[in-house]
Amino acid sequence: MESKVAKLKIKPKPFLFPEFCKGCGRCIESCRFDCITEGTEINPETGLTPVNIDLEKCSGCGLCVSACPEPFGLHLRTVDVEEIDNDALEGVHSFQEMVDLFDKADYELEDPSELFGPRESEAPDPVAIPDEWLPLAHHEPLVLKGNYASAVGAILAGCRHVYGYPITPSTEGAELMAKLQPLMDGVFFQAVSEVATVNMMYGTGGAGLPSMTFTSSPGFSLMLEGVSYMVGAEVPGVFVNVMRGGPGLGNIAPEQADIKLACRGLGHGNSHAIVLTPSTPQEMLDLTMLAFDLTFKYRNPVVILGDGYLGQMTGRVKLPDRLKKPGIPEWAVYGDLEHRRNLICSIELSEPVQEQHNIHLNEKYAAMAAEEQRADLFHTDDAEVLVVATNTPARMAKGAVQELRDQGVKVGLFRPITVWPFPIDLLKPVLEHTKRIVMVEASPGQLEDELRLALSKAGIQPPIIDHVRHYGGILPQQSEVVEKVLEGEEVAQ
Amino acid sequence: MSVSTFYDRFERHAQGEGLKGHATHYCAGCGHGLAHKYMAEAIDELGIQDRTIAISPVGCSVFLYYYMDVGNSQAAHGRAPVVGLGHKLANPESIVISYQGDGDLASIGLAETFQAAQVGLPISVIFINNAIYGMTGGQMAPTTLMGQQTTTTPRGRERVAGLPIRMAEMIGQMDGPVYVERVALFGAKQRVKAKKAIKKALQLQVENKGYSFVEVLSECPTHLKMTPLEAEKWVEENMVPIFPLGVQKDITEEITPELEFKPFKPSFDVEEVKGLIIEGAENGVERFASAFPEHIAKDDISLKLAGAGGDGAQTAALLLTRMAINEGLDSTHIPSYGPESRGGTSYADVRIAKEEVLSPASPTPNILIAFNAPSLTKFAPTVASGGTILYDSSVISDPPSVNGDIQMYGVPFTEIATTIGRRVIKNVVALGALQAMTDIFPEETFLAAIRQALAAKCAMIPMNEEAFQWGQKAVREGIEGE
User: Fold this and answer.
1) In this structure, are A233 and A154 located in the same domain?
2) Chain-chain contact of B266 with A319 (C-beta, under 8 angstroms)
3) Is the pLDDT confidence value at B4 over 80?
4) Which of A123, A282, B172, B462 is 20 to 30 Å from the Cα of A424, by its Cα?
5) Phi, psi (5° rounding) for residue A386?
6) Distance from CA of B66 to the nearest CA of A (A)
7) Structural domain count of chain A
């Protein structure tokens, strides 16, 4: 009780370290007793001119303190009686006497780190809550549209946050999510635009939870700014882009002309993401689930490129044998004590630190390239002609390869499942006996560009490369692929 | 320090070395520091430091995260409120502050600003309006006053550059927000109000009342080229007449417990999730076929169903795909529509394979079902040798001639359907005809799939079964229509 009395005797008074005063003078006007005046001496440490304070008339009202914009500027100094000998307080009657006593008893004024303590934050070191996999009993195959299959895959991967802006031909994904998510206390939120969509994903991804969107080419263009921020800030999220005809508004028919964007143009800066290209409704489910694993594994967005046909195509889809209950990674900004220390951010003004960050990103890209190449090989063991295609065109190509094999032609199909990283390691052995490549694409050679770049980087002299290409929503047909393969001189007729 | 929501040392400000460890990066007299301080004090007073997430914007306050010892997320220019919504929806227990300047909130981020406000989820938006762009170096802001000189309005803001935008008034007009106020930082009285308003904005979020918006008129002495005290005076004399202070909207009292936001947590219950996924996608039904219908094609059958939108070609195609998958086969269906939702062209390709559908397209179908004359004319020549064509003889009176090895048969789909009672079930009549004509699957397979598809509309089943049987009968007994 005695200590309380001692504390009450001395009203807290303002105190200022001159080096933390920028001399703005907001405090001067706030004081009714004119205790504070404009400074006259430049502080040698800061080059600024701090205010002068004379506490003779100070009433301790604190208005100057709430006028000071600096966190470590003017503050009211109180005496912590725990730290000061009570006896010493006897005979202390003015604030200055208290300050003198306090300074003697406690700390050096010149060393703010001692005054304010060495810690940055009291928050504990963040910890990860791990994912859980729960077994799913066997079930007969479902009959699902590609877009629905992807939505089901996302739900099974633990995604309960879906953001989107409706765009044909991807809308079924959003619609199914809008129906199912609220029933699981999940979220489907129709954002004001694709720009808002990707930034909502940035928020939820930053909080450490899985999130996704369904979009189509023009919408994907709009999201790219946000994708760059997600890459920079290392935020996970899954983008399903059901590609349609372009450029511009184009049409709503299938195309593959966003391979360039997804592989080479994910917004500004040094950005890459794993790009998965399914070919069947089953793969729409499987690769969506995989995408969620990969996006958290690398803390980097993952893009699934489907085509308009695949989104609309209905097929047989088997469910996996488990589903995921996602945890919270240690880096997340979830909004709790355990993660209070964390920061999600893509700005770094220091050039050396920003360079280090890019080196770190490059290492991640290298790891993705080393570990995540995926492709499907069909009749490639002895193939002299290699058809290369992905998405729905790969199915036309597969039909063609089977038809040609039935005729005894040595032809195979190489179907990249990742177009970034391009599965060059899987292609290399096949090329040993390949005399000619036939690219089958619904784009003006964007997949071919990826292939050529991968060959060039691997130092491989490419064989002859022919192509079957269509644009504007027309897909290459099986008969065209057959014809193109048979054109080659190496095909023994 | 007394305010625990400020870091004790600003480690992120130049690694916390030297004076920067305890000083902000703001110019002398800048209003941001005060807004930060009132925010930090309010967080302290409300005891919400651990669950607060501050969204740093782009602009001078991009480094808000240097100072606030809370969860921090730094957003792209203008996107802070939707990044904030992403956080709020991820963890509804978190307290989200979207802190934005005038370029961020009132220019590049207008769409996000308005959506977040109108959605009205409980987040707190603190809007610093200083009538100029600070970080980029004194350019015009959307809130720059008429006649005000900036580096992009060197002659003063003229009419062609537009008029200053009044955000608090606009946000206050919207239905979503619960509390909107404009405050200022000049003079002790205004600062007390500013602090109170910021605290109230957070308090309303803690109470799950809804969205709140506090516009803070702030000083940028550097780009106004004034002393800090002159800048305070300038705000008072020039900004306040255009941006009047005070509460724009406050419906806090009207927010009854039923209207409050209810925090939620997603479910991961396996049975529940599985049930939801499988619901509508039906359970597997019995198999009726003894083998792949090799009499049509060896291991891969290709069908095309074509008509106008509303003919039911897609539904019939989807049913065929379902039947094949029910029978343990692989199957795909690809629709192709014209641009109109109703009445345009509508074609469907179906593939049914013993093992795996390779190409899902049907450029040369084994079976064509045509619901109108243009479809028949267009696709009859593509039918594979040995194939089958079924067409609606109610609407096609003059079928084209086809190769001799193609079976072509007209059934009055529409007439039969209309007689039964509903024109729209002509596609089911067509399926009945298809079954009788090709025996692609046993009758039971068709009927099971129809019942399955109509599980939610049981009353429709008898009429559809009747339509199916009439389709069969038409083929078997040669009903040609009128």
Assistant:
1) yes
2) no
3) yes
4) A282
5) -115, 120
6) 10
7) 3
